[in-house]
Amino acid sequence: MIVDIHTHVGEHPEHIGEGFAAQAREAWPEIRLGRTLEEHRREALDGVDRAVVLAFDAPAAGFVVPNDYVAAYVAGDPERLIGFGSVDPSRADAVDELERMSQDLGLRGCKLGPIYQDVDPLGAEFARVCAALERLELPLLIHQGTTFSRAGSLLRAQPILLDEVALRHPRLRIVIAHMGHPWFEEAIQVVRRHPHVYADVSALVSRRWLLYQALVAAVEYGVAHKLLFGTDYPFFTARQTIDGLRSVTGEAFGAGMPVIDPQIVEDIVVRPSLELLGVA
């Protein structure tokens, strides 16, 4: 079974504001932001058996996809879609919303992004959200890496900060999105130290050399088995991601360079991510 644990929904400009879109176009002039739910159902599920659909509550960046929107969508196809909600940690009712999205909406995890939400991942607001996630047994998928958005500081986006989060909340299952790019070595160290911390490979196919280096490092540190399959749809499809992963195996970068066993990639593609995160 192939499970994509990192797909987005949301339309421009209803959920994706023009400020966010303008900054995205500065980085990628050809980018097309937003997809309808019909497009997600047709494109994101092409080539995969199940997909996690992410809400996002990041008003600081102008990217807000409501929990109710995602919950209503996944309820229409519960065999294939799994919903993850989101809360802005700076909201006074963030914990109440976590409980509502879990107990009333049936969402199975939470997406956070300190650099998009302009919050300190080691601050008190973030800590109370992590404590609630741990209590509710909801996994956390977190964008802890760089971005084109200027909503928050890169100083708050470094994966090494998650080491402290994992120490404070040892039962919280955490997935570091995009292997914490470009700080993949930091992300790998955090994954290595903590039993319940993983990383997904979403979006890295756009930077083939970085993807190769990240996979080599994961193999050398013995954590390749904790890498989960994700695409970051709509930015990349499952086929693009699988082809990109396969393209860096073997002697892809020439004789004498470290070799990635093709089986490493095939194992990532079919990894039982939902079982590992407790949401199967």
Count helical runs. Answer: 12
Globally, the shape reads: globular
Radius of gyration: 17 Å
Estimate the strand proportion: 5-15%
What composes the largest sheet? Answer: 8 strands, parallel
Helix % is: 25-40%
Tally of domains: 1
CATH architecture assignment: Alpha-Beta Barrel
Task: Draw up the topology in text.
Elements: E1 3-8, H1 18-27, H2 37-44, E2 50-54, E3 56-58, E4 63-65, H3 67-75, E5 81-85, H4 94-103, E6 109-112, H5 114-117, H6 124-136, E7 140-142, H7 161-168, E8 174-176, H8 184-193, E9 197-200, H9 208-220, E10 227-228, H10 238-246, H11 262-269, H12 273-276
Parallel strand pairs: 1-2, 2-5, 5-6, 6-7, 7-8, 8-9, 9-10
Antiparallel strand pairs: 3-4
Please give a structural write-up.
The chain has 280 residues and is of the alpha/beta class. It has a single domain (3-276), classed as Alpha-Beta Barrel (TIM Barrel). Helix content is 38%, strand content 14%. The chain is built from 12 helices and 10 strands. It has helices spanning 18-27, 37-44, 67-75, 94-103, 114-117, 124-136, 161-168, 184-193, 208-220, 238-246, 262-269, 273-276, and strands at 3-8, 50-54, 56-58, 63-65, 81-85, 109-112, 140-142, 174-176, 197-200, 227-228. The strands form 2 sheets. An 8-stranded parallel β-sheet has the order 1-2-5-6-7-8-9-10. A two-stranded antiparallel sheet has the order 3-4. Helix 4 (94-103) runs parallel beside helix 6 (124-136). 49% of the residues are buried. The model has no long low-confidence stretch (mean pLDDT 97).
